[in-house]
Amino acid sequence: MEPDFTAPGFFPLLTELLRWRRDVRHFRTDEIPEAELLDLLRLAQLAPSVGLSQPWRFMRVRSAAARALVRENFRRCNEAALSGYQGEDAALYARLKLAGLDQAPVQLAVFCDGASPTGRGLGRRTMPEMLEYSVVTAVHTLWLAARAKGIGMGWVSILDPEEIAKHLQVPPGWRLIAYLCLGRPAETHIVPELERVGWEHRQTLEELLVER
Amino acid sequence: MEPDFTAPGFFPLLTELLRWRRDVRHFRTDEIPEAELLDLLRLAQLAPSVGLSQPWRFMRVRSAAARALVRENFRRCNEAALSGYQGEDAALYARLKLAGLDQAPVQLAVFCDGASPTGRGLGRRTMPEMLEYSVVTAVHTLWLAARAKGIGMGWVSILDPEEIAKHLQVPPGWRLIAYLCLGRPAETHIVPELERVGWEHRQTLEELLVER
Known about the structure:
Two copies of one chain form a homodimer.
Chain A: H1 10-20, H2 34-44, E1 56-60, H3 64-82, H4 87-95, E2 106-113, H5 130-148, E3 152-156, H6 161-167, E4 174-183, H7 193-196, H8 205-208, E5 209-211
Antiparallel strand pairs in A: 1-2, 2-4, 3-4
Helix pairs in contact in A: 2-5
């Protein structure tokens, strides 16, 4: 039996979920219960994937040694990124908090398994990147489900993906799609941090819609 | 004021939405009201984007000429894909319905604008693909919001993305991320079509989770 998605209040609250989902960089350090995390990962598996390839691979990064390697990789990449900005931009960039690697109780590296036969190649002959895009929809599903449970997520991309894959000793064919921090957010906001601090503003649909 | 995502029934229905979201290939031909479509696209804009880059560009493909070019591109790419399968796989592939291009009332080409300065490069120095991944999260947001409104979406990837970009005369720097069909679904299912017809099955979390 198909559920009734027109039930009163559901769509408005879904809309609010989309409006309040943030890329979180400020975490409390209290743990996420194990069962809650696994439930969220099972929901992430409901994401669409090209040819039902399900190429997502979730790696929990728990050991102090592995986390230290990631932390150091971020530090170096962030330093290099900072050096690419000048003047006021550089000052603003330096003040941004771009990772929650020291506080977030849960860290997940999410990979795309390019070597798996699952899906039998369907739908990715002309667009092989569909495999990676499928992993992105799983990451996004996790993000929304976590937010609905009061858990914040931050996607750290200031990392060298190949070095991280080496540090984490992944199987051949695995490619890093996302390095994620999860935990209770220290604060919640409806406005993105990059907008609040004046890095960027949000665009209207009219700026982004064309027709053919 | 932050909404209460713990409101009774919300998370269960969100879970059902994730479980019932399908990649739809069988559409009814009745139109989607214009205002409803624009509302959905505004929700898609709430998706996360690296550095608040908002690189998504939505193109409504409405003209018969543009649609015919896309249809013909799909036909050729699908024929080439079919020739890559043998025996029973080929027979099964030939029976699959892999696009809804003839029925879906709404067709959207979604591009990533790689030339836009928005976001000022933040977060994509080491992972430039983050820009494309951002567009994927907007596509996925649209998918979920549409499903909640009873509108099905199908992501057609059996297309040559560069040829499609040429056919649709996009500005320089735009790259095709997704070609989408939207409309009322002719049927709804909780099980993916590729699983129903025996192309692929779904994996368990235990198969996909590792630890470091």
